[in-house]
Amino acid sequence: MVTMPAARHRRHVLGASCTTHFIHDGFSDLIILLLPVWQAEFALSLSQVGAISSTYSGAMTIGQLPAGLASERWGERRILVAGTALVGLGFCLLGIAGGAFGLALALALAGIGASTQHPLNSTIVARAYEDGPRRAALGIYNFSGDLGKMAVPGLAALVLATMDWRYVTTGYGGFGIVAAVGILIVFGFLKVGGRPRNVPSGNSDGHGRTSDWGIRQRKGFVLLSATSMIDGAARAAFMTFLPFLLISKGASIETVGFALVLVFAGGAAGKLVCGLIAERLGIVRTAVLTELATGGGILLLLPLPLTADLVLLPAVGLALNGTSSVLYASVAEFVAPERHGRGFGLFMTLTIGAWAISPTIFGILSDLNGVPNTLAIVGLFALTTVPLALALTGPLAAANDSQSA
Q1: What is the number of other CB atoms lying within 10 angstroms of the CB of residue 162?
Q2: Which residues of 213-223 are buried (b: 16+ CB within 10 A; e: fewer)?
Q3: Domains of the chain, residue spans
Q4: What would the pLDDT profile of 172-211 be if each residue is shown by its tens digit?
Q5: Architecture of 4-196+209-404 per CATH?
Q6: Alpha helices of 129-164 — where are they, by DSSP H?
Q7: Distance of CA 189 to the CA centre of its chain
Q8: Exposed/middle/buried for 121, CB within 10 Å: 0-12, 13-18, 19+?
Q9: Which of 325, 405, 264, 334 shows the shortest CA–CA distance to 136?
Q10: Structure pTM?
């Protein structure tokens, strides 16, 4: 039985991690809103737009695994504080960018800083709830990021109606630097994320014993990662080029901002709804349902008029984020507790790596075939995750059996 002080402490830890997630996801999805603005100001092609988006995601990919490994030496708190300050600095530098190259450099710096958030905050939450409702806690943590995705682009769209985009990036970047100081103080007060104790190492055999990466069930981790990679790639391509689809149908930048809020609101609801569905139907069935809905929803958006798209977008957002939340919470089931930093770091490296490459590839396709045809390919691509999700049934059952044994 967890004592009240311990229960209260871990709720405070969860709250601090959720706040950090909110801030970081606000950075990531503010970029989506600004892509059409940058295209217009700097006369960019869709291939260049995709490449700029990939620069940020690619830098996040590069930093995921080093962040997890560095946390084993210096603790999660120090790396997370440095990363948050770095992403804030990168967004401040966006305000002085004079073209595509300047944008890419600033976003690369910001992406490296942003890479620290997912693996380290996930580790902090998973560790705090090791003997409690871990999946629910990770679900709440994921949900907090969607709140940031809704609030920051939505408010930025309102500001962009009267102010230059440079004020938006510089202002939010400065806020990120201040937030880094807050993380240092709050996490230090809670005594979490400090220098870790020495952890045992093991040999990898793929049959339940712990490897140096902490992966206790190799087949399950591979299938989980592959499903998440395809899901992440489809999601990144859809979110990158959705604003251009809406603009082609007559949407203003304020309408695009409102549309993103609708998508992220649906995504936030998806984190909660799909978690409840997973409790009833199981992880695999839930993932299959959400991927079918994602692919079908994207294809349905294409022929509809703008108003109908806006009505449909919350449902698409719900399905779009449903799979990621279910998969993400399952990582801890395949990774030993003492290696959560590495496990989450590896999983996020693979997922965001696919996410990083996707906008560039689909940007080239958009220049060649147009945005609607490219998004049709994205919708079909999302459906390829269904057989991979179905194959997870056995490994998940084996992981649950080994933990209960």
Answers
A1: 7
A2: bbbbbbbbbbb
A3: 4-196+209-404
A4: 999 999 999 999 998 888 777 666 555 444 444 444 444 5
A5: Up-down Bundle (1.20)
A6: 134-160
A7: 27
A8: buried
A9: 325
A10: 0.81
